[in-house]
Amino acid sequence: MGISQEKLGERLGLTFQQVQKYEKGVNRIGASRLFDLSHVLEVPIQFFYEGAPSNSGRPMMAPGFSEGPPADANILEFLSTREGLELNKAFAAITDQRTRRALIELARALAGAEGELPAGDKPFGV
């Protein structure tokens, strides 16, 4: 479901700035707000915990969202690094969809050129 931060805020009784703070992790989101969010977005509450560790040590998967291959461990490892976090924050700040798409295509092109890197200069996680 595509919804703007402003519309989401209206439905939750928040300003879009408050929604941005939740999205960026500046403010923590409480259980009751998460419950409200699941209703507005029409997703099960488990959707927000997809990939989170469970008591079994295996990632929890939300019903209906667990199809497909499991998350790549290298990606999860990268996202937990400073570079991964900075890249994610910078990408999330880009609002123009064409710019986002161009950046994704650039990253794919650079990843395709990976085979040309010297052995000692492999990207993180490879």
Overview of this protein structure:
With 126 residues, this protein is mostly helical. The protein folds into two domains: 1-68, Orthogonal Bundle (434 Repressor (Amino-terminal Domain)), CATH 1.10.260.40; 72-116, no CATH class. The protein contains six helices and no strands. Helix 1 packs across helix 2 (16-24). The longest helix is centred in the C-terminal third of the chain and has 16 residues, at 97-112. It starts with a helix and ends in a 14-residue tail after the last helix.
Element layout with pairings:
Layout lengths: L4 H8 L3 H9 L6 H11 L31 H7 L2 H12 L3 H16 L14
Helix pairs in contact: 1-2
List keywords for this structure.
126 residues; mainly alpha; single chain; 434 Repressor (Amino-terminal Domain); 2 domains
CATH class of the largest domain: Mainly Alpha
Outline the low-pLDDT stretches: 62-70, 117-126
The strand count comes to 0
Shape: globular
- Derived structural class: mainly alpha
Count of DSSP-assigned helices: 6
Instruction: Give the C-alpha Rg.
Output: 18 Å
Which CATH architecture of the largest domain would you pick? Answer: Orthogonal Bundle
The CATH homologous superfamily of the largest domain corresponds to lambda repressor-like DNA-binding domains
